[in-house]
Design goal:
Shape: globular
Low-confidence stretches: 2-16
Number of helices: 2
Number of strands: 6
Pfam family, one: Fer4_15
InterPro entries: 3Fe4S_ferredoxin, 4Fe4S_Fe-S-bd, ET_Ferredoxin
Cofactor: [4Fe-4S] cluster
Keywords: 4Fe-4S, Electron transport, Iron, Iron-sulfur, Metal-binding, Transport
Strand order of the largest sheet: 4-1-5-6
Protein name: Ferredoxin
Radius of gyration: 15 Å
Distance between the termini: 49 Å
Bound molecules: iron/sulfur cluster
Number of domains: 1
Order of helices and strands: EHEEEHEE
Amino acid sequence: MVTEDRSPVATPAKPGVSAGLRVRVDQDACTGDGLCVQLAPSVFEFDVDGLAYVKDDAGELQTTGGAYVPVPLPLVDAVVDAADECPGTCIYVERPDGTLEAGGPLG
Ligand code: SF4
């Protein structure tokens, strides 16, 4: 009997980078320099206050401070790079279990 493999396929963009990541910005520490907006413009955008916020997969800006959005798999590299290079150390990329994948003051 042939059984069909229905296991989900998740291909991390970078070795060691897990799928199912989510990202948030701590606006209290954002410098407004715009590095994240340059690196991943479909995930980060400035609001009228000049600080970066995250956008959902429909492009809706999440203007509640600290709101999370899922990281689209093709953008994992760009979002992780933004978190690694964020001058305010205020981008948090978290795994499904809440542990930090990248960013934050200790990232
Ligand atoms: S890179 Fe960091 S400090 Fe700069 S705008 Fe984005 S969230 Fe703010």
